[in-house]
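Recap from last week: sequence in, structure out.
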Amino acid sequence: MAVTATTGDRKSAGGGTLDGGQPTDDAPLASVAPITDGPDGAESFDAAPGAGGMFASLHIRNYRLYFFGQSTSVAGNWMQNVAISWAVLQLSHSGVVLGAMTAARFVPLLLLGPWGGLITDRSDKRRMMIVTQTCLAVLSLVLAVLSLTGHVSLGALIAIVVSLGIVNVFDGPARQSLISNMVGRDRIANAIALNSIAMNTSRIVGPAVGGLLIATVGVTPCFFFNAISFVAVIASLVAMRTSELMPSQREVRSKGQIRAGLRYIAGTPALMAPLVIVLVTGTFAWEFPVTLPLLTTQTFHASAAVYGTIMACLGLGSIAGALAAARRRRLSLRSLSLSAAIWGILIAAAAAAPNLAVLYGVIVLVGSGAITFNSAAKTLLQLESAPQMRGRVMAIWSMSWQGSTVVGAPIVGAIGGSFGARYALLIGGVAALAIGAFYVVARRKAVDHLGFGSD
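Predicted structure tokens:
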């Protein structure tokens, strides 16, 4: 299926009408990346970063502030994620419980995701992020105090994790949608890729430092550092020049807007196909908070420091993948499908790693494959979605990529507990390979029959 590129579709996604004549206003984002023919004759987006090359988006002050604020905050987030996973294992000694705890954070997203996206479409996204980031900081501080006073239990962790999930229902779509307001349509792909670099640089620092802290002084400092780190991203949002943000028309409150968003997605093949791929891979492959702690403790009988090293290798590979994505010149469903299939092969290779040295090397490649795939999916979805629908589209992306953990994490955790961590990783690799291969090799008629179009 080619990414939609007809004149009529572009009009709907830009300054034309949508859903029976509802006006849209996307003048600041009207600089559309050129469309070129892919090698198979399918249309695809030219995603060249334009002036400024690989780091084009960093020439924009608002995005530069956001980039460095996120880099600090995400390092704290990963320290906290490592600490929570390790605390759950220490309290329960169970892969099933770890999978359930991981899933608990995404239950609110699965239940409330479209509503969070709708609120985002109605709101000032920068202000919304200031509120959500403040709430996340407070929750991390509560967790730190509980840990310091010795009151951390599985029940307390569940309550905090679910609360974090509720806030992320609103924070996720706002974060994804704000990027296009900062940089404009022609640099969305570059900005998403650079954002991945920031996040995954932090993924190296966060787990590495977190693993060291856990091994030496415990989990409490990880929670305190994360609470403090939110100051950086909140400060970056406050310091932005609002006059330089590219506004898109906010959705006007009316009845049936969630259903309208779901109908819009279901009726837009260029959105449905990437979301199906993201749903499958998000459910089974993107479960590293479950599979990697199990692989560390059960398969290699290693310490928290080794777990931190594994996560750092994942982050190192992700940076390499993000750098490649920042230079990507063409995006299509076919390239997204190939990314998913290759990523699946790499995950399967990690499952078969005979020792830690080999695992470290393969995990670097797994990280690269993950970001190559994920940044392509997010870019295609943002480019194809009408501006007043973008919050709801990205909320469904969040539900598919992260909310699917509610189903996937317990399944993967149970497989790891019953058959071993290698099989828990392997099921993710097979799922990613299968859905990617389907969209690469399926005949045009077969794909059309499923309602997704053809590439």
